[in-house]
Structure formats: structure tokens, C-alpha cells
Amino acid sequence: MQFFLFHLMPYADLDLSAPDKYDSAWVTLPNTYYDPKKGHQLYNRYLDELEMGDTLGFDGICVNEHHSNAYGMMPQPGVLAGSLARRTKNVKIALLGRALPLLNNPITVAEEFAILDNITGGRFIAGFVRGIGAEYFSWNVNPAFSHERFHEAHDLIVQAWTRPGPFAFEGKHYNFNYVNLWPRPYQTPHPPIWIPSQGSTETIEWASHPDRRYTYLQTFSPVTALAKYMAQYRDSAEKQGWQASPENLGWAVPCYVAETDEIAMREARPHAEAFYQKFLRMPTEMLLPPGYLSLKSMQGVMRAKAQMQSGDKSLEAVMKSGMFLCGSAKTVREQIVRYQQEIGFGKILTMLQFATLPHDLAVKNMEIFARDVMGEIRKMDVSPALAAAK
Predict the structure, then answer these.
(1) 185 close to 161: Cβ distance less than 8 angstroms
(2) pTM over 0.85
């Protein structure tokens, strides 16, 4: 199993009453709640935490893209990845990912990612997403074109990385007379591509196509949904003539580890509940606007996200569903191993800082997780159950 340290860079100093006044910490939350002086401290603190992932022995560190919110302050994640590229030496840097349908010029991402790949000497992982529904409000993009803009932007970027230039690209949304990428990517034929998703059927089928075989990541979902969508990826791959392996599947989940189960729950509770009740909450029409998903995918995602949207979001509830791992190192270690053996994922992206969790507790969490969870699992002969891998 590979271990990645995932960070959202939330605005940890948020007035927690604000999301209640505006229905969400996204899109409509006034930016007057943001204090640049506190932001200066937070950005540098968060970069320090991600850089610790290198010294603690994680396989990789992860940043991502979100806009107009307190949930994750990385509207331009390449800026953060560029800083990390020079300050780390061993970990892979995964940018998970750029929201391709929002772009007017996907070549900018091809260039940005190629530069990062060159600076790191091939330690870069490219993540492509459609962006959640809220991003389409922030960027004033029609969600009904989400899939076709995503696919066309993806094709343009991959061709820019792999085809000798200059060449012309003609599409419905993007047209270029001269595609001629400088610099070219360091990795051949291009950086690995990962696809985070909420569980769109079309995205799973597309990512699992034999021409792509992209790593599929399930984000912030109950374990029942995780198992469902990972099985769907394996089934889709099999129908298309190839056998998916655990390396093709990853799980992103918040986690808190302490000396005992009781201490872990006490220390994590206010911050985990702030994450699910304040930072992540948004109206359904903002998360899944009309046209963003097909009817089939909409029904599936709505069922999977029901608890996140309207159900019980106490610490006990999100722990029970598997949306939050919390406890002693032994407890969390056993949970991860059991889920991996049952479900068959090969990558786990742990979010060890979340919402308002302060730096001292984040560092404690990272150190215990690295030593007593990740370190101990790496000593074990852990492999997914054959039934899950088929």
C-alpha cells in the first residue's frame, strides 16, 4: 500500500457561525471573513506540514483546487506545488487536481504540469477533475458542458505532452493553430494521471478505459460507497478487456490518531465536526447543479452523499460510516488493513489536518500516523482479498 499526505489548506480561523448565516462556506460566504495576516501564517504553516510528509516517509504529498471558499484555500494549486517542488527531495507531489472544464485555455495546465515534472525530476503526479458543482457557480461555467469540456481539455493536454509540435487542435470548445509545448514533460510519455471523483458512472467508465487505466480516487465517502465505486471500476475494466489492480484504486479520508481511542476522539471532535458540519456543508443544488451529472450518476451520488448532505454528522456518525478514521494507532491500523483487504485499494490519501485542527495537534497526528500506522502496516504482509481484487 502507498501512503499519501493530503491537505486542503482550510481557513482554520473561520468564524464558525458564518457558514450558518450564508448556508455554506462556499461561493456566497463573503471574503470579508478572510484576514490576509492570518492567511499569511496559515499558508506558511500548511507548507511546513506538507514538507513534513517528506521527512516522515510518506510516498507522496497532495494539493488540490477549489475556489471561493474557506474549505480549501488553493484556487491556484500549482503555486503551492511549485513551492513544494523545491523544498522536498523524495516524495511525489500529486496535484489532485485541476478542474479542466473551468479552463478557457487547457494549454496553461499542460505547461504548468510539465514545469513541475521537470523541476521534480519526475516526482509529479497529474490530477484531473471536473470540479464539484460549486466551482461552476464561482467561475460562471455551464455545468451541462462539464463532461465534454473535461474530455476535450484532457485530450488536448495529453496530446500537447506527447505529440511533436507544432500541430493544430480543433475541437468544439478549444481550437489552436499551434500546439507546441515548451517544456515537454520529464516523464515518458507523461506524468501519471489520477482521477478523483464523487462516483460519476461516466467518469469511472472513462478512467477505466484500456487506453487510459488511470488511477481512480474516491473522496470523502462512506465505506459502503467506496466499496461500490471501486467494484464498479474493476467491473468496468473487466468488461473492457483488462484486470484492474489495487494500484489503480485510491481512497481519500480524514484521519486522527492519538495515544488512545478516548484521547483521539476528545482531541479530534471539535475539528472533525467543524469539517463536516461547517466547512463541507453546502446546499444540494450547489454541490450537484442541473446538468452536472447524468440522471443515473446523480441518483447514485445522491445516495452515497446523503449523510454528508443531511444526515447525522457527529463524530460518532462519520466514524461509523467510515468517512473519518479516529482512534489509537492500533485501532486506525486495523481499520485501514481491514478495509483494504475487503475493498482492494492500493493507495490511501490521509488528511491529517482538517478544518480548525491546530498545528500542534496536526503535527502530533502526522508523527503518530507515520510511525505507528503507516510504519507498522509497511512491515506487514498486507494484500487485498482476492474476492475484492476481482
Answers:
(1) yes
(2) yes
Rounded distance, CA 318 to CA 296, Å? 26
Taking the C-alpha atoms of residue 249 and residue 288, their distance in angstroms, rounded to an integer, is 24
Q: Each residue's pLDDT tens digit in the chain (390 positions)?
A: 999 999 999 999 999 999 999 999 999 999 999 999 999 999 999 999 999 999 999 999 999 999 999 999 999 999 999 999 999 999 999 999 899 999 999 999 999 999 999 999 999 999 999 999 999 999 999 999 999 999 999 999 999 999 999 999 999 999 999 999 999 999 999 999 999 998 889 999 999 999 999 999 999 899 999 999 999 999 999 999 999 999 999 999 999 999 999 999 999 999 999 999 999 999 999 999 999 987 777 666 666 555 555 568 999 999 999 999 999 999 999 999 999 999 999 999 999 999 999 999 999 999 999 999 999 999 997 666 544 444
Give the cell for residue 2. 502507498
Q: What is the DSSP letter of 145?
A: G
The torsion angles phi and psi of 209, rounded to 5 degrees, stand at -60, 140
Q: Are strands 92-99 and 167-170 parallel, antiparallel or unpaired?
A: unpaired
Q: Who's near 111: CB < 8 A, 6+ residues apart? A: 181, 182, 183
The span from the CA of 346 to the CA of 245, in Å, is 8
Domains of the chain: which residue ranges? Answer: 2-389
Domain 2-389, CATH number (from 3.40.50.300, 3.30.360.10, 3.20.20.30, 3.40.50.720): 3.20.20.30
Q: Report the SS3 class of residue 293.
A: coil
**CA–CA distances in Å: residue 275 to residues 98, 254, 270, 371:** 22, 10, 9, 25
Give the whole-angstrom CA distance, residue 69 versus residue 112: 23
What's the rounded Cα separation, in Å, for the pair 208 and 294? 18
Q: Which residues of the chain form beta strands (DSSP E)?
A: 2-6, 60-63, 92-99, 124-129, 167-170, 175-179, 193-197, 215-219, 249-258, 325-328, 347-351
